[in-house]
């Protein structure tokens, strides 16, 4: 589905087959005359996504594009090599751009696996080069020559001036595009309407939930009438949604403290005991990628509580355990 959401701004719904997210929204800022168009996020590196995006290009009569990648996840950057040419500018923040290039090959995934093992994910579940991480299978295969953007960088596309707003949390270098005049925010996965953005540990990050909550506060200060998210339909009241997300994390933090009681537990054990909106009878029935995401959520909440001094952490045999203080 290709929808015009504002003057020269199109939303293309790109399918994500067999993925709980079901689809991703790519946004196309259509250039006028000889101006280049900008594509924001691409879908996974798989033919279904490539065909869908190509279809949108054909309908709009686009040949060459520049690309803006909101963050490092494969459903956002998987097709960058396919849709960029030598003349294309490919924008991302430096932090996520470096990680996107590090994702090519095995080392990044091995370090990420090791990080999860440190937080209690059972080592036995990992075979090297397995597909346990859902983003790994459909990752881009080539390094990308990025043009890095920073807080306040202005990009002009589709007749709008877009200001880069960095919103670390969902990923360490997550970036949004904001048009102040028309109060439009293209926010990637920073704010989503129907699901809660996953806040997970990432290489080089200790306390992602603190970063995320700070980035929510930052966005709440902007005037936004149209919020364009990477998954789901546009949100009309961003401020109400931000409050819901803040409340969600507050409740999650309370739940984690309750689950810990006075026992030493790993993030994996806490994830097992948390409540999840998933159609599975028990934790054992969770598909492995869902266990991964759940553990990531538990990690981010436990780390937040640890850094605020509400709980304590101890390392035993290379694995972190937490307990109420
Ligand atoms: Zn994401």
Short description:
The chain is an alpha/beta fold and 325 residues long. Helix content is 34%, strand content 22%. The protein has one domain: Metallo-beta-lactamase, Chain A (4-Layer Sandwich).
Task: Describe this entry's structure for a reader.
With 325 residues, the protein is α/β, with parallel strands linked by helices. It has a single domain, classed as Metallo-beta-lactamase, Chain A (4-Layer Sandwich), CATH 3.60.15.10. 34% of the residues lie in helices and 22% in strands. It contains ten helices and 14 strands. Strands 1-2-3-4-5-6-7 form a seven-stranded mixed sheet. Helix 7 runs antiparallel to helix 8, helix 8 crosses helix 10 and helix 9 crosses helix 10. The longest helix has 23 residues. It is globular. Zinc ion binds next to loops.
Give the termini separation: 51 Å
Specify the CATH homologous superfamily.
Answer: Ribonuclease Z/Hydroxyacylglutathione hydrolase-like
Task: Give the DSSP E fraction (strand runs of 2 or more residues).
Answer: 15-25%
The domain tally reads 1
What small molecules are bound in this structure? zinc ion
CATH C-level category = Alpha Beta
The largest sheet, given as strand count, sense and whether it forms a barrel, is:
7 strands, mixed
User: Overall 3D geometry?
Assistant: globular
Write the CATH fold name.
Answer: Metallo-beta-lactamase, Chain A
Q: Taking Cα atoms only, what radius of gyration do you get, to the nearest Å?
A: 20 Å
Strand order of the largest sheet: 1-2-3-4-5-6-7
Helix amount, in percent?
25-40%
Given helix and strand content, the structural type is alpha/beta
Q: Could you say what the CATH architecture is?
A: 4-Layer Sandwich
Count of DSSP helices? 10
How many strands in all? 14
Summarize model confidence as the mean pLDDT.
93
